[in-house]
Structures are given as C-alpha cells and as structure tokens.
Amino acid sequence: MGPTPGTHAAGKASVEAVARILAGNARAAGVVSAGELFGAPGFLRALRPHVTPVQAG
Fold this sequence. Notes:
This protein is an all-alpha fold.
C-alpha cells in the first residue's frame, strides 16, 4: 500500500517549507502557519505542480 494523497501533499508542503526557511525567506519565528511564515499565495503556487486543490463542501 503506497502513500495516500494527503500524506504526499503534507510531505511536499514540508519540503517546500524547509527549503524556504533554509533560504532565509521566513517572515516570522516561533509556531506559526505556513501562510504567516511565507505568505499563503506564493506558498500554494509553489505546491501547485504537486498538489491538486479541492474545494470543501
């Protein structure tokens, strides 16, 4: 049994976040969301090739 789509998406988001932190692109410190740390639109655009957005409801 392979990884689930949710696991794959979380892994890609984690890798993107670490790459941005190591590049010095973090705007805050401490416990914050990815949107607060990097700006949600740019972060989500970076994930677009790997994750398909789904609208709830």
